[in-house]
Every structure is written in C-alpha cells, then in structure tokens.
Amino acid sequence: MKKKDLISKWLDHELTADELKAFEASNAFGSLSRIDQAAELVQKPELDVALSYQKLKAKRDQVREKSLWNWRRAVVSVAAVAVIALGLFWVVSNNSGMVQVMTAMGEKTELTLPDSSEVVLNAGSSLEYDQNWDDVRAVRLNGEALFEVEEGKTFTVETSVGTIQVLGTRFNVKNRDNWFEVTCFDGLVEVKFGASNYKLSAGNSFRLVNGQPHWEETSMTNPAWVANKSIFKSVPLSSVLSELERQYAIEIEATEIDKSVIFTGSFTHEDLETALRAISIPLSLTFEVKENSVTLK
C-alpha cells in the first residue's frame, strides 16, 4: 500500500493490525504522531484550516468542491501532505497565536490566507501571521513570495529590511541575504525601509542589493520563479549561487572563484546540468557534480 494511502487510513482510524504495524515502522509515523499530539493541544482558531486547504487543493485540480473536516484531522492532514509532497511544515502555536508556513530547499507551495488573499511561497522561505486576522491583515516574510491581495483594509508584509503596504494588488517580495526587492504587477505598493518611503505602480520594481537602491520597469506579469526560472540583472554571483542552492537543495563549493563578479542571466529550476551551464559558460567556469554537491572552478 502506498504511504499516502496508509496515512489517509491512519487519520480515519481504519488501519488493520498489520497495516498499523507497517505504518508505525515507517519514517513518517514519528513526525505525524508528534504533529497529532500537538494538534490535540491547539484550540480551534478563527482560521478555517480545512477551508483554506480545500481551496488550495481545488485550485490545483481545477475542481471546486467543499468538504467539512474536524479540526484535529485538518491540522494533521495538512501536515501529512507537507511531509510527503512538499517538504514544508505547518505550525500552529497556541501560546503565541501565530501560524507559520515554511518551504524546504527545492520546494514551492501555495496557500490561501483567511481573507482569501493568495500567496505562492518560493523555496527556502517562511511566512508567519497571527490567527487573529480580523485585528490586522499582516504577515512576516523571510525569503520570497508572490502575493495576490483581496481588497480591504491595509495589508502589510513585514521583512527584516522593510515593510510593504497595499490595499488590494498583486506583487512579489524578495527578502534574501543582502537582497531586498519588491515588484508591483497590479495596483499600487508602498515600500518603507529606514527613513525612506517609495510608491510603486504596476510594472515597476524597487531593488536594494548590498545597500544600493535600484528602480526598474518590467513588462512581466508574474515573477519568473513561479514558472520555474530565475532571472538576474546585474547582481553579484554570490546571490545567483545562493538561489541555485535554494532551488536544487544542493551545496556549492566555489572558493576558487570570485563570487563578487556581477552576473546577468538566468537559469531553469527543472534541470541542474542546464542551470549550471547557464551560469558557468558566460563566466568561463567549469563545474563538477557529485550527488548533492557542486564544485565550481
């Protein structure tokens, strides 16, 4: 029996004695048991996890349907899907009242917020928000995400570098090491960092790399990464290699090259060899791949 089928039957308490024994011996059982125990301690929040999960699943399958799950099964089911398919963790804390979603290296995921705003989370990223959503529409982002915000009161994205505020729009935020970038695809976005305050209309981008601000226009209607591609324009090679590590869940050894060199180009998220050639050929570099490790020279 497939692992996903075992988990489904375990959630419904339908496993036979032999199936239960087999499932308890699997790697997934320990993690899901701990999530199950934690779920029993969590009081049902205002956030309807079941509805949010169903909306996400329906969008992917292009089939709209509604289903009523009990609270405990909803939390564990979302976690089960995360463990098997996405490698992300869905954490609900009854002490702080915060919900956190994290993607692993090499993974992306979609989620729907309580106000029906939609988020696509890039690899190696995390998003956190308060369950008391009616009080304030605000999330904290570490990494990169595309937001499509429903109209309403002010929606705030907080990062370690700056704050983005909108009323209803579609925009991308990237908050990585030494790289902060906001691109507006629809509507109007207000970006605040330090004592500075900027407003971006659709088709405009603000970027802060190593403390240096840049403004650019874009004809794109979505960030390239949602189509499994990373595009760079005049950025340090170190940032390009960090993104490559993030998208392929690999480690790159590059001690023999100058990672401060400026790079303009792109790479695909779908084939490592092709991605490495896209980076190495323009810079006259060579590479060697060994399992999850890459050496650039």
Automatic annotation (TrEMBL):
Keywords: Membrane, Transmembrane, Transmembrane helix. GO terms for molecular function: sigma factor antagonist activity. InterPro entries: FecR, FecR_C, Ferrdict_sens_TM. Residues 231-296 form the Protein FecR C-terminal domain. It comes from the Bacteria. Residues 101-190 form the FecR protein domain. The chain crosses the membrane at residues 74-92. The keyword Lipid metabolism does not apply. PANTHER family: PERIPLASMIC SIGNAL SENSOR AND SIGMA FACTOR ACTIVATOR FECR-RELATED, PROTEIN FECR. This is FecR protein domain-containing protein. It comes from Aureitalea marina.
